Amino acid sequence: MNRTDFIIATAIVLFLAFLLGWFVSWLFHRLTRVTHAGMGELEQMAHELHEAEEARDRALAYLEEREQELIRKLSQCEAELRAAMEGLRIARAESEELRDYIERTNAAG
User: Fold this and answer.
1) Any idea where the domains of the chain sit in the sequence?
2) What is the three-state SS of 58-94?
3) Where, if anywhere, are coiled coils annotated (predicted)?
4) Rounded to whole angstroms, how far apart are CA atoms 96 and 102?
5) How do the pLDDT tens digits run along the chain, 109 residues long?
C-alpha cells in the first residue's frame, strides 16, 4: 500500500465514520422528538401538578391552622386544670381545717 492508497483508505474510513455519526444523530433526534400530542400531554401533566401543589399548600395551611387552634385549646385546658387543682387544694385545706375544728369542738364539749 502506497501513500495515495493510504490517504484514500483513511478518507473513506473518516467519511464512513462521519456518515455513521450523522445517521445516529438523526436517529436519536427523530426518536426523542416531542410531538404535538406529547406537548399537550406534558401541558396537561404540568397543569395537574400545579393543581396538586396548590392542594398540598392549602392542606398544609389548614393543618397548621388546626394545629395552632389545638395548641390554644390545650393551653386553655391546662390553665383551667391548674385553676381547678388550686381550688381543690384550697378546698381540701379548708375541709381539713373544718375537720380539725369539729374534732376540737367535740373533744372540748
Assistant:
1) 34-108
2) HHHHHHHHHHHHHHHHHHHHHHHHHHHHHHHHHHHHH
3) 42-94
4) 10
5) 799 999 999 999 999 999 999 999 999 988 888 777 778 888 999 999 999 999 999 999 999 999 999 999 999 999 999 999 999 999 999 999 999 999 999 988 6
DSSP, collapsed to helix, strand or coil, labels residue 7 as: helix
Residue 50 CA to residue 43 CA, distance in Å, equals: 10
* Cα–Cα distance, 103 to 99 (Å, whole number): 6
pTM of the model: 0.52
- How far apart are alpha carbons 51 and 74 in whole angstroms? 34
- The answer to whether 3 and 10 have CB atoms below 8 angstroms apart is no
Measure the CA–CA gap between 100 and 106, rounded to whole angstroms: 10
